[in-house]
Records
---
Amino acid sequence: MTAAPRTLLDKLWAAHEILRREDGVSLLWVDRHLVHEGSHHAFAKLAARGLPVAEPDLTFAVVDHYAPTRARAQTADPQVRRMIETLRRNAQDHGLRLFDLMDPGQGIVHVIAPEQGLTLPGLLINCGDSHTSTHGAFGALGFGIGATEVAHVLATQTVWQRKPKAMRITVEGTLGPSVTAKDMALHWISQLGTGGAQGHAVEYAGSAVRGLSMEGRMTLCNLSIEGGARFGMVAPDGVTFDYLAGRAHAPSGDAWDRACEDWAKLASDPQASFDNEVVIDAAQIAPTVTWGTSPDQALPVSAQIPDPGRIDPAKADAARAALDYMGLKPGQALQGTPIDQVFIGSCTNGRIEDLRAAAAVLAGRKAQVPGMVSPGSAQVKSQAEAEGLDRIFTEAGLDWVESGCSMCVGMNGDLVARDKRCASSTNRNFRGRQGPGARTHLMSPAMVAAAAVTGTITDVRPLLSGRHP
Amino acid sequence: MAGWTVHTGTAVALPLANVDTDQLIPARFMSAPRSEGYGSFLLHDTRRDEDGALRPDFPLNRHPEANIMITRENFGSGSSREAAVYALIDAGFRAVIAPAFGDIFASNAVNNGLLPARLTPEACAQIEQMLGDGTAQARIDLDQSTLTIGAQDFAFDLDASWRIKLINGWDDIDLTRQHAAQIAQFRNNRSQAAPWAWPGEVD
């Protein structure tokens, strides 16, 4: 008798399931719990019960959501200061490792955990942030939770969860030049909708996914939630192991060898079946840009803005409202739309590879609009500076600032003003996301750089001909 | 959290799709302690005009007494901020009825006693039409999984475990601590089967 074929999700779930209730909900063991300033509600719940953190050695704290990106030593805003102070106090009271503002390991939680080797294949990772799906890029179960669940994980190192359905998105073939993981993600979300993967854990597979670096896989998994999936994952392979070898908290010596042996088994069995399968041809994916206020309102850069009167009636009202908010006209070409500013950074696209891609476009050129580049972590920042990327950005006229969530969510005060149009390498084009009345166009870092150079939404490809991306 | 089985209240339609959690509560309000109350933050920017004045035609401004919301596709998508649920609860809401919800929003809702009930898009559209820009008395029965408006019953979809949790008002931490021995045993087994799952010491 042979065992039934299992998906990667099945294997990871089984490895963490402490028990399953009669109603089908599982109690899962949490290997890593990441907290940030926004976790204050959860710490307050814990304090109200007088409970300690169950596993301080598995709990890591970082200042990112409210991290000032300028003059951080003397933060002026009292609200920002209070949020950071509260996290410091909670980390100290519970004996947690804190990556504080001046720590060389500081950065956005989903950038630093992999960087520190805290994210590993086979782990279950929780954080009170929806982009925790990023960590699935390593073949881990990473998912975002709310404050009540954060308090529960702090108190018990476990989480109750009904197993999601399994979905596989296979991207076969080769991506065209300057087409990135960001475009892959925006492409599938535009095809399937923001609810397209609701209730599912997405496994990304296929030669185009295998061909991505870890940075690219993280971008792809990061955006899973924008298509409704709480989980995104890629089976670990040589690319994964090469990225992790020698990282600060990764296993070393014999433990490393044993870990790699175990991790190599973390793949869906060839005959495993999925509740939903989608296959995409990589060659069909173009540099993609959002035009509306929802991540699925995205099109190839060469496309025209849709006419709500000529699309699926179920989507027409939303499209009309989005165009009104965005100040765009149906039928207008997306390309050539003037922008007011740019932002490069975030847990989606703030890694070294993202900065290199943007710098390749900006080198020797001037930005026509103001903008900010916020590296995903202090380590990414020093790496970029060692490579001279910071000079390329500043010589182009962009601001090179410290690391944090910054203008992706604006909690630290980095905001886009009302009615201003921002080309952004972030993850959400929601109304008001970058500030009240702000208009966000999501795109890859290279496309943001192209928008900076021309002052309009632009296809990056001609700008890179003859250059190495 | 107190459990509940039947709620009789006032239903209002919010005819918008994709009401994400950034709209439900803009990020700048999330540093406030819960004790200050989050009700005034609910849909803060969506319900106001550019000058910050309340839009008189916005359903929630017109009917501040409403406590059951009927809305459209993909409600509560986006960020995991539980503050979106606090804003709804502190504004008096006990239930949101929509064709689909963001997964994290829905579990946050249940953890705070707010019902995220799913009805088909057709049924939601029908109720939206019944309500127009007014309100109606409505009754929710969790035991029966029904929403009653006027003479009409609508059977809604709700995860069975969530239904029980809403009714009992259970606290998960208390529930989980009853399994402490099993958790300790699991931890011990895992530390032997997967020693690499513990963070390596930094030199």
Note: The two ends of chain B are 45 Å apart (CA to CA).
---
Amino acid sequence: MAKKWKQKIQRWLTKQLDLPEDVMMDFPRITMVGQLHVYIENHKGLLTFSDKEVRVLLSQGQLLVKGEGFVIKTIWPEELILEGKIEQVLYINE
Amino acid sequence: MKNLWFKRLLGSVTVKLIGISGERIINELIRQRLVIWNVKRMSKNEIIFQMFIKDIRSLRQAIRTHRVKVRFIKRAGFPSWLKRFRRNIGIFIGVFIALIIIIILSNMIWKVEIEGASPDLEYKMVKQLKEMGVKIGGFQFLVDDPEGIQRKLTAMNEEVTWIGVELNGTSYHFQVVEKEQPDEVKKTSPRHLVAKKEAIIVDYFVEKGEPVITINDFVKPGQLLVSGLIGREDAKQKVSAKGEILGKTWYTTEVEVDLTTEFELLTGKENKRTTIDFGNISIPIWGFSSAKYKHKQVEENKHELQFLKWKLPISITNKTIKEVEVHEKTYSTKEAKKLAQEIARKDLQKSFSEEAKIIDEKILHEKVENGKLKLLISYDVIENIAKEAPIIEEERED
């Protein structure tokens, strides 16, 4: 319950103070360049990785990217660049 | 880290992870702040990625707790290149040394040929060339260029009319033309002596033959001086007339002298430079002083390096920059006149044989025009005017 209350307060504060959400709320920021690249900031780790599917852990839930010929161009503790032919980007909430 | 060149410089390695928990290991590696890139899944339990060579120890530590195998597939970048290079350094050094030896040998002198010289002259020339450094085993870039050698050799050997110097690859070829000695045969053949030019006979000395002139005679060119036919009128004998006929001859010369002249004097300061030139780029290897002279004379000696028979675009240039001072001198008319006379006399002396003597000189005409002094000088000269002429048969019948 405490976690939910914390989130609610955060959301209210961000709205009132007009702050960027990704900074305040620890949200992922996902940038795509056509179907070529996905640039994921603020991830929490790699879950599964194959050339057709990549599953990345987020602060809440998971991100699933589907496509073909995936290569992780670079990977840092909070960012990763995925290259290949991207077809779908899905959020998975438990 | 984003830079490709940075990766190349540090050296990278391609790693293959074999095992089922590849993702977890990647997570652990990035948590340890290792840089990895180009992560690819090859099959169900194989992941390939690249990383820096320096991080391999951390990778080994990270996989200790997991059930995976690690294979290193390919090394890339500067360190591994260096390693490979070190392994093969023998070949590189060998090739390098071989190239240098070929270049050195291509720029040596392997043959010195002298053609057309008499044996003692050839011996002398070989000796002189040796002193100049032109000998078998010498270096071409340490000796003068062919023109310089030619000049020096010609100056050193009086008896030589002309020396041709040719550099053909690694061999020097000298073509010598010796001054011709007067022929013995000519001496003994019957002949007259005739006048070479207009003159008044001053003195004569006849060794052989019959003089037909007396002192103070005026002779014209071609006139008979000493007859080669001696003896009685009806039984004349042919001899080779020999003798010296001194005659007074006249020359007029015109000289021009500038009243103001500029001349350059070397101050003795000089600057020697040696550079290696690659095409248009020249790299100094000797002499870096950058003294700048206001007026200078530059002597350049360029030696192109050769590889076997081909010229390389590399050359060694010796440059001597000499400082000169430019002086201007103004002559008074009197001085100029003296100078002009000197010049005229020297010129004249050059044109005739050494025995000739100038006995008198007269200035016929003198004029200053456009800053120039013009002189017309007449000279009285005593010289040998005798010239050999063959005896023509008809003359005998006369």
Note: The longest helix of chain B spans residues 333-351.
